[in-house]
Amino acid sequence: MAITLTQLTSFLAVVRGGSITTAADALVVTQPSVSAALAALNRELGVELLERAGRSVRLSAAGEAFAPYAADVVGLLEEGRDAARGAAQGAEGRLRIAAVTTAAESFVPPLMKAFVGCRDELELVLDVGNRAAVLEAVLDHRADVAIAGQPPTDGRLEALPLMDNEIVLVTAPDDPLAGTAPASAGQLHGRAWLLREKASGTRALNERYLAAAGLEPSTLTLGSNGAIKQGARAGLGVSLISRAAVQVELESGWLGTIALAQPPATRRWWVLRSAVGPIRPAVIEFMDFASHALVGDAS
Questions:
Q1: Per-residue confidence band for 38, with pLDDT thresholds at 50, 70 and 90
Q2: What order of strands is seen across the sheet that includes strand 167-171?
Q3: Domains of the chain, earliest start first
């Protein structure tokens, strides 16, 4: 089998971009070169990895099965290159951390500062995104470790629990229900609900709660925790969000909370890594450090 790195990177670029045009732009090559690489890869495998979907393309059943392997191969080669260069230079290199927005806006930066300590030769890089983007970054080996609010269900990921992730319903500080006895679902009827963007774990949490409570409110989608907080403070609606994301606003009185008679279960933060390929010492050290540094809040 003579599969090349060019074929794999072209295939993955098409998968991520949804079209040959987008893939060619991302790789800074011509569209015919991407098409040729895909055709050669199909011939090597003896299957068609992509199929037409209007003006775009999508994975075939064979492509769905092959894509994780392609991502692992390309990602591990990139990791191997960084490891080799670091060893040649006598340095620890980089530790690439991906974190969901809520974690990145609260406890992750202090955790990074505490971890790096005297490790002057270790460069920490933080990439922030929603849950889907963060998990994809680790699965594709574009991030060494990640911090998210739900344990992964993919067997290609390994995770350790961190501290508790308490969820609160935020609202304007002068809301009549703020600071009162726990409210029933019926008392929230007619309230507008503020939601994060699609693929956000926080959005999924809100949608699950609304479905379980039998509520079908009007919703407003806001693309960040900051916008959610400002919207709640202005009285645009309410939203379930991690207490870690709003601790400062709650302590300052800029936001209020509505206690719920049937609140969502307290979750945990997780630190995770790919279970595929060699494990760099820095990855092991960070995961161990994080799980112990935050263990006091994980009971």
A1: very high
A2: 239-242, 167-171, 256-257
A3: 5-70 (1.10.10.10), 91-164+268-297 (3.40.190.10), 167-265 (3.40.190.10)
